[in-house]
Amino acid sequence: MAGGVKVFDVVNDLSPVLYETCLFLLQRKDKKRKDKDKKKKEKKKKEKEKKKEKHKKKEKKTETKKPERRPFDRDLDLKVNQFDDAMRKQYIKKAQGLGSRFGHAGKQKYL
């Protein structure tokens, strides 16, 4: 089969038994290749489906994680910063001690 000789020319020159054998082998080879291609396409299709399902699940997770916003309620939201009278007096007393240049916030002395 060197040079410009084609496979079909060689097959046609063979005896009928060898011709049938070669034809059978070529058909078998084609069938195997088609089966292999079919399996490969099915595998790709399954992978695409899995990828789509995974993407859908991811979208559902992000949609469900969004917290619902609560409207502003003045009494509830500003209640956090309210002090009772004792705490208020204590903070005022500490702040008065900071008024002088050498004043300290508490009774602690440096060194």
Attribute tags:
111 residues; mainly alpha
Helix content: 55-70%
Q: Distance N terminus to C terminus?
A: 103 Å
Structural class: mainly alpha
Poorly predicted regions: none
Short description:
The chain has four helices and no strands. It is an all-alpha fold.
What does this structure look like?
This protein is mainly alpha-helical and 111 residues long. The chain has a domain of 60 residues. It is built from 4 helices and no strands. It is rod-shaped and about 120 Å long.
SSE layout and pairing:
Blueprint: H1 7-13, H2 16-65, H3 74-78, H4 85-97
